């Protein structure tokens, strides 16, 4: 069956695509065109169908090279659309991170260009790069201190913040706050001082220490569920037992000297250490109280009350 031919003007009118674009697609080899004896381009019904596909693919955001591969059967239509969808989803996720960075920047009372660059950079880091931020923090904390390397590895593995491919604004904000916190020299100094006091003067059985931590957390959770405050009889019993357990694990006696030492540790406790775990929980899509911060805050108050007596 002989196909009807159309001049470039007729093809433009029927397709709704400008003459200029038709010439461009033809010159790029995407849209074959015949020629009249006078050299004018002509198109058939097949080319018009092909032109509809080109337009759909362009509207979907595919580049000319990808469209050429689809038209020459080097790439299936399904594969091309999947690739475009993956690219589009990555772009959307990136835009969400940028939007979150802009929100964080706008909350800064005295915004500078350097602040904006920092916010944007922080939201665009990969998981590996985020892990590096955490590792550098622990390197600064542990430098020159006799800290068990297994403990360091466990802390890094359990605290490297996860950020999904499509993070919520709250997750992006949590990462921005967390990365700023980890870069704060005062937090490094506070945690380092505490670590040095413990690790350079004591030999810890790491497994026993972790087991004791889990036990006291479970006990605190049960008491909190009974709506008892840290100063209650149950709270003070827990504090007394935790003091004795800590002394035993640190190979000390729960005497006056040890009580004074422990009292100093709780007095110097940096609240940002608890905030860290809240932010990690948010980044993992959990509630801020998913970490045991509530229990540790309760235990801290119970210990302070007990040591004040």
Structure description:
It is a single chain. By secondary structure, the protein is mainly alpha-helical. It folds into three domains: 5-72, Multidrug-efflux Transporter Regulator, Chain: A, Domain 2, CATH 1.10.1660.10; 78-120; 127-308, no CATH class. It has helices at residues 8-15, 19-27, 45-59, 64-71, 77-107, 113-123, 127-142, 149-159, 169-182, 185-199, 206-225, 233-249, 256-267, 272-283, 293-308; strands spanning 5-7, 34-35, 41-44. β2 (34-35) and β3 (41-44) form a beta hairpin. The chain is rod-shaped. It starts with a strand and ends with a helix. The model has no long low-confidence stretch (mean pLDDT 81).
| Largest β sheet strand count, sense and barrel closure | 3 strands, antiparallel
Strand order of the largest sheet: 1-3-2
Helix content: 55-70%
One letter per element, helices H and strands E, the order comes to: EHHEEHHHHHHHHHHHHH
Alpha-carbon Rg, integer: 32 Å
| H/I helix tally | 15
Uncertain regions spanning at least 5 consecutive residues: none
Distance between the termini: 103 Å
Give the number of DSSP strands.
3
Q: Provide mean pLDDT, rounded.
A: 81
Helix/strand class: mainly alpha
What global shape is seen? Answer: rod-shaped
Count of individual domains: 3
